[in-house]
Amino acid sequence: MILGDDFTVLLVNARHVKNVPGHKTDKKDSRWLAKLLLSGLLKGSFIPERPIRELRDLTRYKTKLTNQVTAEKNRFQKILEDANIKLSSVLNDVFGATGTKIINHILGHESYRPEDILQYVHGKVKSSREDIKEALTGYITPHHRFMLKTIMRNISRIENTIAEVDTQIEVCIEPYKVERELLESIPGVSKVGSTCIIAEVGIDMGQFPDQNHLASWAGVCPGSNETAGKNKSGRITYGNKYLRSLLVECGWAASRTKNTYMSAKYKSLVGRRGKKKAIIAVGHKILIATYFILRDKIEFKELGPDHLSNFKRDRLIAYYRQQLEKLTAA
What we know:
4 strands, 13 helices, extended, 330 residues, mainly alpha, Helix Hairpins, two-stranded antiparallel sheet
């Protein structure tokens, strides 16, 4: 929307200006928006500065490219299984060092014997030689060979593009290296994760009134749906889907760390709430920590795995002290 003579652009969330359904036209929508603007009921959405927006374009594009590589690898394994080659059943990573050597040998020879490929299997592979030999016994047609070579070339092309995007990301993140290093102090947040967080939320936390507004904007805080004193649903709200998926990845990484508050938080919730809700809760904690780290420019303060136990103990002590005072007064 254009305001006044200075042509200020106001970007508004469509969910916040929804009109009564029915009899919808573009002219009626325009009049409705103008009425809301004159009443002061329009709230502008968060738009980061241009360097952050450019960094966001790069990180989101890299995510798309990475997903394409994953899809191509899945398609590659499907072609292998169609040729009765079951590499995924004997190798943890089909595209690891051993898997790559085996695939190159298969594609480089018109006819091959499984016994000749066993030389590429190192001692750390847990599967037996007999199982590997059986998994490699297949029949590759010219069509299979063409498809596999084409997919390999496409994977190589996309990975080269990802390397170029990574180089440009490093150029764009240079002014925010201090903030990135501070975010890396959070358990589960890697160099890539901290870069993507900065790309999505920026470094100016003055855009958000407090940490709860940031969590609501990201879509990782519990929803509010209460009617007649009853809570209907507590599912998470709509928000930034890119940031939410990133926080889930960081949450999984944090849940596997040792002797940290994040892992203790996950273990305390997973038993009664389930894995998915526990991971969202850990991602919420990571985002709250991000808010204060970027606002105050401080490192993450590790509370330790016993923080939750001490917190519960203090609450129990306060509760029983209150009950004892009531009994004494009676």
